[in-house]
Write a structure and sequence with these properties.
heterodimer, A: alpha+beta, 21 strands, B: mainly alpha
């Protein structure tokens, strides 16, 4: 009796001293708010960040942009490259308890192709059917070979939603109450304020998840977001402005994490879209090369971004295995630019540079305006509200437009939309049949070496024609509290929560 | 009085209708294609075409308006084109936040502005008057967003006294709610208090030399009774007018303050909706704000009648 009482007293003392088990809550400050919380309907980058908690993909990428298993344990192409067979992970459940299996994969891909509001239709346009080989094996059949399909399955299009939940209502209802297989399940969303997700206990890899709850807080202003981080209101800050990097580095309570991103910023030149392409800049590649020579990318990076970004000359970032090392970065030579412009028959050349009225883009445009003047270019700036600027770009109502692309893991996602004659980001309507053949062929080739050579040949042509002048690649910067550990920066900028914890 | 109120409500219906027509028309003048704004980075032509067709963006403006007003008359303000959330749910979520911020800011405006204005008028030409005028000028001149960011840096980052930004519902945690609302309410309220002080001072100065005030003092009434019962009561009409205008503006949403402090109110909602060309949200919020303005003005009129019985209908 005395021993029992003693044991109970000891246990109670230990519990009191140790304290209650507190839930670990991670707060992430987001720059923009996601739109629909449905991988098929979502169109924002912010959505992809939140999706990483809620939904898993068939395939993921690692830090070096290699494709790694997630819901698919393994995959293989048929010999004719017209079928991709996926071996699925077993024992995975959706948040509503329904099983993940080949039938779920079939449902998801068909939903992506047929849901009226789906934004993933183009990505799966070459998939003709999905076969359920057995409960754990699905086969995707294609109308023609398409190597980027693996990358497609490593992004939103490859995210699996619960067939039970997605069939219950329409797409709008699902977007308000999403159900996936991710390590966290949806708890609540208050528009423009927060999105809250909680640990999904039956997740198939529980050891990797050390956080109980994640709160995504919408904090659009970068200065305020940093102040909130410094005051302890959030644990991770997305998108630290390059001009604030020193503040984060100097704060003993914070750490700065970064990686080179997949995207790029470039000048799109109207070379073939409507009346405004009938300019010397639009018609003459020599004039465009003179413009490139007049631009010093390092100065833009230093002046506008405090040296925090990476000067670049091609749409594929250095992090990618398809970055063409043989193409030199030209520029920063106003004398050579002036000579080339004169050779093209012009002493001075005016044109309008259209830019979205955001701080960074406007400053870049102002720096370009100043630096190309010596070379003979008289640049008039047209700063417009972003949607208006994009509309003008799509309509061909521009001379030159400074735009930003968030980037994709596969080079096809960074090149084809902009340089293919049919690419729907090719708003300047550049069209070279040889480039078209090379890019189309590269889509059908899986082997890295052969694909690299095709992209290299295409790059030699479009980099000479210069319908785009790539300026830089934006790096990703996160400010985090020193209490945070296990966070690994990825080139796509997505916050992956596996292994992340707060001490 | 009741008849008057009912008449005003009846007149407000065509006013609201006119407001919706004007806002709807103005949205059509916005440059840029809403479907492109909503279609995302990929600009898939098929997605753009679907958005146009689903939300009737390819139909003529009167047809689009008809679809919308038909929904309004059945209590359906449509859904956010961006997030698929019902507009009524968005308004129901944001309105209490905006009303709370507005109420707190108004309290600060009234409790600082009116006494400061009275004291400044009674002690005209004194050091107190100059100090109050200087403070009012500073309050009117300092931009809200600048003051807000300074307060965050000082109070939250340096001193750690209050959270930097965000919002907690009073139903969740009333103390945390107040801690999150103090700074934004102060930022808004001090600017309003400055204007309130100036108008109160002006109204009091116009009354201070009136015969009835001299008579009240000659009768030996205490100064406090003279100021409150005789002077302030007669100065209330312009004060009520200013308060009503200020409150109406606050209902529309203090955009910059909400942006700085990440308060999920009307101001932020409508600015984001305009930039995203989320027409349904813009129209729903404007309709709600217009109704709020009309209600506040009606309350101001009732306030006039209470302050001055001669004005009663």
């Amino acid at each position: 009796m005395k021993a029992n009482f003693f044991a109970a007293a000891l246990a109670a003392t230990i519990i009191l001293v140790a304290g209650p088990v507190t839930a670990v809550e991670l707060r992430i400050g987001m720059q923009e708010e996601p739109d629909a919380l449905d991988p098929d309907q979502g169109g924002t980058y912010a959505g992809r960040v939140v999706f990483a908690a809620l939904f898993e993909k068939l395939i993921d990428i690692d830090r070096n942009l290699n494709f790694v298993p997630q819901l698919a344990r393994a995959w293989s192409w048929s010999s004719d490259k017209l079928a991709l067979t996926l071996e699925l992970r077993r024992g995975v459940k959706f948040h509503d308890g329904s099983p993940f299996n080949a039938a779920a994969v079939k449902f998801n891909i068909e939903r992506s192709k047929t849901l009226p509001a789906s934004r993933r239709k183009a990505e799966f346009s070459l998939i003709t059917s999905v076969d359920i080989v057995d409960e754990w094996t699905a086969r995707l059949n294609l109308s023609r070979p398409f190597a980027p399909l693996v990358a497609t399955l490593a992004d939103r299009a490859g995210m699996m939603v619960s067939p039970k939940a997605a069939s219950a209502g329409d797409g709008a209802a699902f977007a308000r109450s999403p159900v996936g297989t991710g390590p966290f399940r949806f708890i609540e969303r208050i528009a423009q304020q927060r999105i809250v997700v909680g640990k999904f206990a039956p997740y198939w890899n529980p050891a990797a998840i050390k956080i109980d709850k994640v709160i995504y807080l919408m904090t659009p202003d970068a200065a305020v977001r940093l102040a909130i981080l410094r005051s302890g209101g959030i644990d991770i800050m997305q998108r630290v402005a390059p001009t604030d990097l020193k503040q984060v580095r100097d704060d003993p309570k914070l750490r700065l994490l970064s990686t080179v991103g997949l995207g790029f910023s470039a000048l799109s030149i109207n070379v073939g879209h409507g009346a405004r392409s009938n300019t010397p800049l639009g018609a003459n590649a020599k004039v465009r090369r003179a413009l490139e020579l007049a631009i010093d990318r390092d100065i833009i990076n230093k002046v506008v971004y405090d040296g925090g970004y990476l000067a670049g000359n091609q749409p594929v970032a250095p992090a990618s295995p398809y970055y063409i090392k043989s193409l030199p970065i030209r520029g920063g030579d106003p004398r050579a630019a002036r000579a080339l412009l004169r050779e093209a028959g012009f002493d001075r050349l005016p044109f309008k540079l259209m830019v979205a009225n955001t701080t960074g883009d406007r400053q870049v445009a102002q720096v370009i305006q100043a630096m190309v003047k010596d070379a003979g270019f008289d640049v008039g700036l047209e700063a417009l509200e972003e949607t208006t600027a994009v509309n003008n770009w799509i309509a061909g109502n521009y001379d030159v437009f400074l735009f930003n692309w968030s980037g994709r893991a596969d080079p096809d996602g960074n090149i084809f939309p902009f340089f293919s004659c049919k690419g729907h980001q090719n708003n300047g309507k550049y069209c070279d049949r040889k480039v078209e053949r090379l890019l189309t062929k590269a889509r059908a080739v899986g082997e890295h070496g052969a694909r690299y050579r095709l992209y290299e040949q295409a790059a030699e042509i479009y980099m000479a024609a210069l319908p785009h002048i790539t300026l830089y690649h934006a790096n990703w910067f996160w400010g985090v509290t020193r209490r945070l550990s296990g966070f690994t920066p990825y080139p796509d900028g997505i916050i992956r929560l596996g292994g992340v914890t707060l001490n | 009085m009741l008849n008057y109120i009912l008449q005003r409500i009846a007149i407000s219906i065509p006013t609201l209708f006119l407001v919706t027509v004007i806002v709807f028309s103005l949205q059509q003048l916005l440059p840029g294609d809403a479907a492109v704004a909503l279609a995302g980075e990929e600009q898939d032509p098929e997605v753009i075409a679907f958005i146009r067709q689903k939300y009737h963006l390819d139909r003529p403006f009167p047809v689009q308006y008809y679809y919308w007003i038909r929904g309004v008359l059945t209590g359906d303000l449509g859904v956010s084109l961006r997030t698929q959330e019902p507009v009524t749910a968005l308004i129901a979520a944001k309105l209490p936040v905006t009303l709370e911020l507005a109420a707190l800011a108004m309290l600060i405006s009234l409790f600082i502005g009116i006494p400061a204005g009275i004291a400044s008028a009674i002690r005209k030409g004194s050091g107190w008057d100059y100090a109050a005028n200087f403070t009012a000028l500073a309050g009117l001149s300092i931009p809200n967003f600048w003051l807000g960011i300074l307060l965050i840096l000082l109070v939250s980052v340096q001193l750690g006294w209050l959270p930097a930004a965000g919002y907690v519902s009073p139903l969740e945690d009333p103390i945390e709610n107040l801690r999150h609302m103090i700074m934004p309410a102060l930022v808004l309220g001090t600017g309003l208090a400055a204007a309130m002080m100036r108008h109160t001072r002006g109204a009091m100065l116009s009354i201070i030399r009136q015969d009835y005030v001299r008579t009240a003092r000659a009768k030996g009434l205490r100064e406090r009774v003279v100021v409150v019962t005789h002077m302030l009561r007669n100065a209330l009409i312009p004060i009520i007018t200013i308060a009503a205008l200020q409150f109406g503006e606050l209902i529309a949403g203090a955009v910059l303050t909400e942006q700085v402090f990440t308060i999920p109110g009307f101001g932020k909602l409508i600015v984001d909706a305009v930039f995203n060309r989320d027409y349904a949200v813009v129209q729903g919020v404007v309709l709600c704000t217009a109704a709020g303005y009309i209600l506040v003005n009606l309350m101001a009129d009732v306030g006039y009648f209470l302050a001055n019985p001669k004005l009663r209908p």
